[in-house]
Design a protein that fits this description.
There is one protein chain. Helices cover 71% and strands 0% of the residues. It contains 21 helices and no strands. α11 packs parallel to α13 and α12 crosses α13. It is globular, with a radius of gyration of 21 Å.
Length: 386
């Protein structure tokens, strides 16, 4: 009996059923997209104060006064949503989902995944949650895949220019930023290019002496305290630590700093194990992002497709084990939380330990000194030889 396969199928089905039940009972289908759309509408009305006023969104969406459903993305994200905000809400959501499907398929094919993988990947928690809430994870997955292919091809400036789009959602660039800063001597053109393209996206939001960014900073400060009492069902280290100290305000930022330090250490370790293997370093950056980002929920764990695809192309890999760990942890974690909190008032999560296990499996599948993931192999060997 193949327990890995049984675990994978069980995890996927339980998660999908739980999300379907939640959407049906709570009426939250597409709610995050509606937040994005309304932010774009407020920007069109030149109302940045409204964009970053939680009470405005609570009133517009008809949610409770303690709801955390409000806009917390940077100003360029709200500015970019204006075209969809000009459309009727059902049409805008339909186009958003259509574009998401295109981004998902393009990501899988760019990574060289066979078409038979499309359906299994489409029922993964990250994809299911994206469509349930109307989140942006599939678009940022496509951007991450594009950056990955460009760095593997040694197109450093182009990779940086594309990476600049993560100014729309900075937590998803944590792994890349750590990697490029640790290896700044090699990647400085990429960092400069990313800064330039990010600046171009920021410029339209700098009116009124940067009021939008001041308001954004204020809402983030409030969110830090809000998230001390809320768990986002995330695979991140910060969320794992927060579960051990529930409802303790003031510790969230500390957990973020701890996670960032761990991410830096993991980046350095990956550099020592695979110093010249750009493909593996890029894959590791995606794993590190999921593990140490200060704000990354289920819908952004699609980034894990990149390291899985890289390792699967290089080595024998039991994908069922990866899927069982990933989907199972996300499917059954809420039950574990409830049991622990009911019994002792605190507990630990399944998601981050599952991510660590996935990282270990992937790392052990790729031997030290594996083939370089760069077209510039010969020159890199010469540089090291000097």
């Amino acid at each position: 009996m193949d327990w890995s396969r049984i675990g994978a199928v069980t995890g996927v089905l339980v998660f999908a059923a739980g999300i379907a039940l939640w959407v049906a009972t709570e009426g939250v289908f597409g709610i995050d997209f509606e937040v994005f759309r309304q932010a774009g509408e407020l920007v069109g009305a030149d109302d940045w104060a409204g964009v970053y006023d939680p009470d405005v969104f609570r009133a517009r969406l008809g949610v409770g006064n303690d709801s955390l459903t409000y806009f917390i993305s940077p100003p360029p994200f709200a500015w970019a949503m204006q075209p969809l905000a000009a459309l009727p809400a059902p049409l805008a959501l339909g186009l958003w989902h259509l574009f998401g499907v295109v981004a998902f398929v393009a990501s899988a094919r760019t990574l060289g995944l066979p078409d038979r993988w499309l359906l299994p990947l489409a029922v993964m928690p990250a994809v299911v949650y994206n469509f349930a809430l109307g989140q942006s994870g599939l678009f940022f997955l496509a951007a991450a895949v594009g950056v990955h292919r460009l760095v593997v091809s040694d197109r450093r400036v182009l990779a940086g220019l594309l990476a600049g789009v993560f100014i729309l959602k900075p937590p998803l660039a944590i792994g890349l930023a750590l990697w490029w800063l640790v290896d700044l001597r090699r990647w400085w053109p990429t960092v400069v290019a990313a800064g330039a393209s990010a600046a171009m996206l920021v410029v339209p939001t700098l009116g009124d002496r940067g009021e939008s960014w001041e308001l954004y900073w204020q809402v983030l400060q409030g969110r830090v305290d809000d998230e001390a009492t809320w768990n986002v069902n995330s695979m991140s280290l910060a969320e794992f630590l927060k579960l051990l100290a529930p409802n303790v305000t003031g510790l969230t930022a500390v957990f973020w700093i701890v996670a960032l330090v761990v991410g830096g250490a993991a980046t350095i370790a990956a550099g020592r194990r695979w110093p010249l293997d750009v493909e593996i370093r890029s894959a590791a950056a995606m794993l590190i992002t999921v593990g140490v980002s200060p704000h990354l929920s289920i819908y952004d764990t699609g980034l894990l497709i990149i390291p899985v695809a890289v390792v699967a192309a290089r080595a024998s890999l039991r994908l069922e084990r990866i899927v069982a760990l990933y989907a199972g942890s996300l499917a059954f974690a809420p039950l574990l939380y409830k049991w622990q909190y009911d019994v002792i008032g605190r507990g630990s999560g399944l998601e981050f330990p599952a991510l660590v296990a996935i990282a270990v499996i992937l790392a052990r599948s790729v031997p030290v000194g594996a083939d370089l993931g760069s077209v510039d192999r010969e020159r890199d060997h010469l540089i090291v030889g000097r």
